[in-house]
Write the C-alpha cells for this entry.
Amino acid sequence: MTFKPLRVAVALAGAFALTAAVAPTASASTGSWTESATSYTGSLTGGEGLASRADGSLLFRGLASIPVALRVKGWNHIGDPDIAQGDTFDAYQGGDGATSKMYAVTTSDGRRYEYVHQLDPGEKLNNSFATVSPDTQWLVSGEWGDQDRLQVFPTPLLNPATPRTGGALAQAGQITLDRTVTDIQACDFVSGTRLVCVSDDAGKDLLQVDLPHALDGTAVTGTVTTLLQLPTRSICSGTFEAEGVDYAADSGTLRAEVVQPGVCAVSTTVYSYSPGA
C-alpha cells in the first residue's frame, strides 16, 4: 500500500489478533474461487502481505517486519512478499520524495542482497508488492493509485542478467493492462500466463490478469477481469483495507488479506479460497 502513518489502533500491538482458522458460516461460490476458511494474523507483523513456503507454512510481512538496518537507510514501508526457490523477495519503498525503490532478496541461509531501482520518468515511488514468475526469471511489481500497467524486472539474483550480490535493477518490458486498475496492493502468479491481484478500491476487488504468453522480458498486454469482492466482516465498523495475496501451487489454495477497521485494525483477516467447481 502507499505509505502512511500507523493507525492509532495498531499501537495496541495486536491485542485483538487471532490465530485459529475458522470455517466460513456458508461456503460462497465466487466465480472460479470458493471461500473455504478464515484465519487471522496481527497487523503489525502480518498486515502488509503473505507468501507460502514449500512446507506449506506461511510467511507474513507487516511494518514491524522491516529490519532496523533497512529502516535506517530510509526504507520505511514493506509490501507483499513472494518466495521462489527458497529465496524471499521483499518490496521496499521510502518516504515522500524518494527517487528509488528497493527489492531485497533473503536466501534460505539468511544472506540478504539489496537491489535498488532508480525511478524512471513518470514512475511512482510506491512499491506495493513483489511476485516472481513460475520460471523464476521475472519479478512483477506495482505502483499506487490509478494505473494501466504492472512493472516487470529481471528477478534479482535468480535472473542471470542481475548482479549476484545486489546492485542496480532496471525495468524490463512492462505489462500494459487493458483497463485501468486502482490501488493494487498485491499480485501473485497462479500460472505462467495468469496473475491474481488484490485492489484496495471501493469494492475490495480480487482481479485476474491474463497474459498472451509467459513473460520473456518484452512488453505484453494483460486482460483484466474482476473475479469477486473480498469480504468485509468485522465486529468493528469503518474502513477496511485490502492487502496481500498468495497462491500456493502445491495445495491450490488462494489467500487474500483484509485489514479490519477501527480499533480492530490490529487484526488482519486472511480469507482462503479453493478452485470453484
